[in-house]
Every structure is written in structure tokens, then in C-alpha cells.
């Protein structure tokens, strides 16, 4: 737990604001450096610049960070204005809306201080003040943490773009808030703006930041998140601190070349050769299967239906390609919203589904009549350790079902999936990670008595396979769907027209 010291007391004497206090008290606290473990606002401005503004904007933001830090400090008024200008100037409001909806919540959630959050969870009326722009923090604080009031400066907007300048500050707002029971702020490189709430707190506590080791120990465990973090978007898989951002830009030229080589390996060479060449250039593949089980010989004893339907959970667009690699033969795959570019460069045959149940059923039947087939019943990818609801359509069409658990690791720099960006770039970003890894686990074929032919309903078959895959992966089953994902991340139902598939 974070060490909270009462202000104007001996710093070596620690005391929790919860000691001897009933729940429901009013609370005001700072944001970065207090509610968040990070004391610098730079990583969050960098996330906005890179994800919403693009590579050039992110580079410019990094270049100004060194002189700003040396001359005025990142947490000063001038430092905050400089970072806000480079991150926001000319940025479209709709792009910022996507960042606050899909990108920033993950960064904030993973950076929450467990001790301060414990105090906030026990509070009644909650007020959070931040020197970060209101648009960057308000949605997360209200939707995820249930904060009642957010005190933060507004960004100036001209038409549909930000000017890069603050339209207001929050000092005058704080004067009208009145007294609260508890105030919490950080003592490590404090933001001068956050000192304005001190006169409005009956008791003030300070969060000490003594070492990075202690800061990591105060990370809020996933199981204690205020809301499950199932969906998020954006390409960056790490918190872009100044040093991490510099390493990213130095890595990019090599990563781009390496990604192209890795993709060409799967396109040019046969699967058996691709496995060895891929391993030589940093792509790790691990295969496992149940005891006395050979995936290459898994066939239905019914000679009238010898084709195998491989049912996979969906981590990236590369799932069926890695399945084909480990089987050393090309397995066609059915998918939704595949972009024309992805379809053109895919080393395996891919077929789009239309979301028309009758047409899709006919398509899958015809493909199964021609041979084995791969399908991902979730209908969309999920980055976190959760499985979305499985469509039951596949269970209605065949009894020869082989569950395959897909697990991705080594995603240390870029995520290889997107809901709001260009989907054809997904494989490129995935292979730009230093050591991307796939674990393909073949589970036992579904027993005939547990299929539709054995008297089970299609929904029961789909739910059983979802549960079996979740247990094999250590994931949690959910009833969430593709539509839920896109409503959260993009504000739409996820239906993409073929002409606009990105």
C-alpha cells in the first residue's frame, strides 16, 4: 500500500486516511503522481500524440521534452503548456475522442496506485484535480472510477480541431468547491497547480514516492480493477516514458525491415521451411497437444465427413496462418471484415463471411466439403485474457470439431490488432516486436456424443468449447460480443463495408 503521511507531521510517521474514519467521507486528490504512480505527465501526452496524432507529432513531442525538462520542468505551468501544444495543436477532436475512449483507460488503469485507490473506493463524494487537459482524464475518472467532479483545464477548440492552447485553468473553480474531509497529493516533484486544493481540505495527506521498486509494488492488481479491462485499442504496448519513447524511435527502422522479412518468410517458403527461417529471425512458435493426440491425423471416423473444423480463439489475424504453419499444410480460414490488402498478401486462402446466417452456413459447408477449415467463433480479436461469446453457427454444420487454443506473447512494443485503425497493418505491427511468440495448443477432438449429432444444442456445444479453451489458456469466459467491443472502442456496431475495410 502507498505510504500516506499527514501533512505537517513527522515524515517518518505513516498514517492511513482510513484509520478511524467511516466510509462515505468527501475526498479530493491529484491525478498523476498521486492517483497514478507516474509522477510525469509526459507518457500520457506521448500516448495522445502517437495514437491520435501520428508518428511525426510524437517525434516532435519527444524532441521538446529535453529542453523543457532542463529549463522549466515537465510539471511546471510552462512545461505542461509546451507538451499540450505539441500533442494537441491541429489534432482533430474525433481522433482525441477515440484516444480517450480506447487508449488512455488502459494506461491509467495499469498505473493506478493501489493505496490511493483504496482510499478513493471508500470515499463518498470524490473530486480529482489534474493539470492534464480535462479531455484526457474526465472520461476515465467518471466512467471507471465513479468520480463526481473533475477539476482540470479545458483545451481551446477551433472548429473540429484543437488549437493547442489551454482555454481555461482550474484555480478559480477550486475556490468555489468548499471544504472536503480528506485531500491527497504527491510529495515527489509536485505539480504546482495541484497545491491550490490544499486550503479546501480539512486533512491533507502526502503520498511518498521513495523508490521505483516500491512504486511497482503499489500497482493495482488486475482482479482489483474497478471495472474489468476487456477491451482497449492503440498500437503502443508500453507506457511511453521519455526513455522508452526514444528507444521506440531508434528501434523503428530496424523493426520495419525485420517485419517485412518475417512476413516474406511465410509468403515465399513452404510451411516446414518457414518454421526454421522464422525461428532464425526471432519468431518463436510453440506447439502442444493432449496426450496420445496427433493433430495431423485427427479425423472423424465418419467417412462421409472427414474434414476437420479447427475452432480457435482469436488473438490476431495471424491465428489461422500459424495454425497452417504448425500443421505444415495450408488450412483455409473464414473471417469477418478482412481488408483487401490482407487478403491479397495472406499465404493461406481466406473467405469473408457476410453476417447473413444462411449465406455464411452455405459458405462454410462448401469449404468443409473441400477439406479442413479454420474458424474463430468470437468474430473479433481480444487482447486481454478473456474469451468473447462464441457464435454457435459452426456447431450446426459439422460434428468433426477440433478446438485449438491460441496464445500470443512477446508483445512488448506494438499490439498486432486494432479496432479503429488500419487492419491491414496488424501483421506488420505484430512482427515489429523484438520476439513475437505464438503458442498453438491442440485440444482433444470434441466427442461425437457432445455434438449436435449426439443430442446437444449448437449453443451448448459452442459454450462447452469456449469453456474448454478458456481453461487451457487460463482465460475467463464472457458473454461479450464483437458488437460490444466496437461500441466500447469506436462507438459503432463494428460492421465494416467491404469497400472501406481497413
From TrEMBL:
Transmembrane segment boundaries: 55-73, 236-261
The entry's keywords: Membrane, Transferase, Transmembrane, Transmembrane helix
Transferase in keyword set: yes
Cellular component GO terms held in the UniProt record: membrane
Keyword Phosphoprotein listed: no
Source organism, top-level taxon: Eukaryota
Residues of the Phospholipid/glycerol acyltransferase domain: 308-409
Bilayer topology term: Multi-pass membrane protein
An MF annotation (GO) of this entry: phosphatase activity
Location in or out of the cell: Membrane
InterPro entries associated with the record: HAD_RAM2/GPAT1-8, Plipid/glycerol_acylTrfase
Pfam family, one: Acyltransferase
GO biological process: cutin biosynthetic process
Stored PANTHER family: ANCIENT UBIQUITOUS PROTEIN, GLYCEROL-3-PHOSPHATE ACYLTRANSFERASE 1
Name of the protein described by the UniProt record: Phospholipid/glycerol acyltransferase domain-containing protein
Amino acid at each position: 500500500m502507498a505510504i500516506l503521511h499527514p501533512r505537517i507531521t513527522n515524515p517518518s510517521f505513516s498514517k492511513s486516511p482510513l484509520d478511524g474514519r467511516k466510509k462515505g467521507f468527501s475526498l479530493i486528490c491529484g491525478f498523476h503522481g498521486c492517483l497514478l504512480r507516474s509522477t510525469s505527465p509526459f507518457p500520457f501526452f506521448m500516448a495522445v500524440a502517437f495514437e491520435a496524432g501520428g508518428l511525426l507529432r510524437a517525434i516532435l513531442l519527444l524532441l521538446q521534452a529535453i529542453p523543457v525538462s532542463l529549463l522549466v520542468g515537465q510539471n511546471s505551468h510552462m512545461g505542461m503548456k509546451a507538451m499540450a501544444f505539441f500533442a494537441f495543436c491541429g489534432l482533430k477532436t474525433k481522433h482525441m475522442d477515440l484516444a480517450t475512449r480506447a487508449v488512455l483507460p488502459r494506461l491509467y488503469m495499469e498505473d493506478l496506485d493501489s493505496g490511493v485507490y483504496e482510499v478513493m473506493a471508500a470515499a463518498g463524494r470524490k473530486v480529482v484535480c489534474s493539470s492534464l487537459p480535462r479531455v484526457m482524464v474526465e472520461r476515465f475518472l467518471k466512467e471507471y472510477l465513479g468520480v463526481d467532479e473533475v477539476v482540470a483545464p479545458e483545451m481551446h477548440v477551433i472548429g473540429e480541431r484543437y488549437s493547442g492552447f489551454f482555454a481555461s485553468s482550474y484555480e478559480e473553480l477550486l475556490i468555489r468547491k468548499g471544504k472536503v474531509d480528506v485531500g491527497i497529493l504527491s510529495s515527489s516533484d509536485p505539480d504546482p497547480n495541484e497545491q491550490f486544493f490544499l486550503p479546501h481540505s480539512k486533512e491533507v495527506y502526502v503520498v511518498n514516492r521513495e523508490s521505483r521498486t516500491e512504486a511497482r509494488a503499489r500497482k493495482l492488481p488486475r482482479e482489483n480493477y474497478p471495472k474489468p479491462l476487456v477491451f482497449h485499442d492503440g498500437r503502443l504496448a508500453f507506457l511511453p516514458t521519455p526513455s522508452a519513447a526514444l528507444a521506440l524511435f531508434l528501434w523503428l527502422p530496424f523493426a520495419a525491415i525485420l517485419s517485412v522479412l518475417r512476413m516474406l518468410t511465410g509468403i515465399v517458403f513452404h510451411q516446414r521451411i518457414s518454421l526454421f527461417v522464422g525461428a532464425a529471425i526471432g519468431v518463436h512458435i510453440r506447439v502442444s497437444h493432449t496426450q496420445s493426440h496427433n493433430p495431423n491425423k485427427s479425423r472423424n471416423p465418419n467417412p462421409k465427413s472427414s474434414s476437420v473444423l479447427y475452432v480457435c480463439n482469436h488473438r490476431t489475424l495471424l491465428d489461422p496462418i500459424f495454425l497452417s504453419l504448425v500443421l505444415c499444410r495450408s488450412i483455409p480460414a473464414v473471417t469477418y471484415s478482412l481488408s483487401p490488402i490482407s487478403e491479397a498478401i495472406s499465404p493461406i486462402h481466406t473467405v469473408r463471411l457476410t453476417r447473413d446466417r444462411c449465406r455464411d452456413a452455405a459458405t462454410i459447408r462448401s469449404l468443409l466439403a473441400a477439406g479442413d477449415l479454420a474458424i474463430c467463433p468470437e468474430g473479433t480479436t481480444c487482447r486481454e485474457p478473456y474469451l468473447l461469446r462464441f457464435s454457435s453457427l459452426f456447431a450446426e454444420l459439422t460434428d468433426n470439431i477440433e478446438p485449438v487454443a491460441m496464445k500470443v506473447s512477446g508483445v512488448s512494443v506494438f499490439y498486432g490488432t486494432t479496432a479503429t485503425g488500419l487492419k491491414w497493418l496488424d501483421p506488420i505491427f505484430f512482427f515489429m516486436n523484438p520476439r513475437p511468440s505464438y503458442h498453438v495448443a491442440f485440444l482433444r477432438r470434441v466427442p461425437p456424443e457432445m455434438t449436435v449429432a449426439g443430442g446437444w444444442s449448437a449453443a451448448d456445444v459452442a459454450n462447452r468449447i469456449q469453456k474448454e479453451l478458456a481453461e487451457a489458456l487460463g482465460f475467463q469466459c464472457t458473454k461479450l460480443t464483437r458488437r460490444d467491443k466496437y461500441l466500447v472502442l469506436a462507438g459503432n456496431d463494428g460492421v465494416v463495408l467491404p469497400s472501406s475495410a481497413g
